[in-house]
Amino acid sequence: MTSLSPNAATVARMIDHTLLKPEATADDVTALIAEAIELGTYSVCVSPSMLPLTIPAGADLKIAVVCGFPSGKHLSSIKAAEAALAINQGADEIDMVIDIGAAKAGRFADVQADIAAVRASVPAPKLLKVIIESAALTDAEIVAVCNAAVAAGADFVKTSTGFHSAGGASVHAVRLMKQTVGERAQVKAAGGVRSFEDALAMVEAGAARLGVSGSAALLAGATAIGSVDNY
């Protein structure tokens, strides 16, 4: 990575174009897919009940699906079954939510076991992202949960669902998460990433993927700040 900022096309390829509103309809998801293809995002991220999806032939677009969302307060066996069904219905990636209460209680072995159960249902090369709800955790808890996720075989640690009252992604959390996982895993910033400036800050802090619902508006902001064509 150079010190130059990524352009809009490069940032687009880091985006999971997301629609997780409870009121989302099949027509909304069809529109999401069309917009994702137009924008050149890496994937669409949807709720499991929206599967299976129809991706136009030739489109370079992955399907990410949430699991145990948004609270994480599901039995591990239920999360694993939900993930397995999503994979069978065409998902390429699973974004699972940990049991935040277990982390707050210091039960990091239980957090690791929960993640491992889902990992067993998401065989490589399918990707597993682990949502840790970083805004609800202390720095020490973030570090412990990230280490548990790596130990359980996660491919990514992810900041937030975007639904927690504590808030979403922060540059501090992304930087700490990346420092913790190093090259063992990647980091996804999600929750409140609304502007191109936000996106650049998260990438600079170490994010390799971005969860964004307002992708068109975010990418349109690239021109306003004069992003460059090199990365």
UniProtKB/TrEMBL annotation:
Q: What is its main location?
A: cytoplasm
Entry annotated with the keyword Transit peptide: no
| The protein's annotated pathway | Carbohydrate degradation; 2-deoxy-D-ribose 1-phosphate degradation; D-glyceraldehyde 3-phosphate and acetaldehyde from 2-deoxy-alpha-D-ribose 1-phosphate: step 2/2
**Catalytic EC class:** lyase
The question of whether Cell membrane is a record keyword is answered with no
GO terms of biological process kind: 2-deoxyribose 1-phosphate catabolic process; carbohydrate catabolic process; deoxyribonucleotide catabolic process
Catalytic residue positions = 95, 158, 188
Q: Which domain of life is it from?
A: Bacteria
Gene Ontology MF term list: deoxyribose-phosphate aldolase activity
Q: Where in the cell is it found?
A: Cytoplasm
Its Gene Ontology cellular component terms are: cytoplasm
The UniProt record lists the EC number as: 4.1.2.4
Spell out the InterPro entries in the cross-references. Answer: Aldolase_TIM (IPR013785), DeoC (IPR011343), DeoC/FbaB/LacD_aldolase (IPR002915), DeoC_typeI (IPR028581)
Q: Which residues form a coiled coil?
A: none
Q: Which UniProt keywords apply?
A: Cytoplasm, Lyase, Schiff base
Q: Name one Pfam family in it.
A: DeoC
User: Which reaction is the catalytic activity of this chain?
Assistant: 2-deoxy-D-ribose 5-phosphate = D-glyceraldehyde 3-phosphate + acetaldehyde
Q: What does this protein do?
A: Catalyzes a reversible aldol reaction between acetaldehyde and D-glyceraldehyde 3-phosphate to generate 2-deoxy-D-ribose 5-phosphate.
Instruction: Extract the HAMAP family matched here.
Output: DeoC_type1
What family is reported? Belongs to the DeoC/FbaB aldolase family. DeoC type 1 subfamily.
- Name the record gives this protein: Deoxyribose-phosphate aldolase
Instruction: State the organism named in the record.
Output: Cryobacterium lactosi
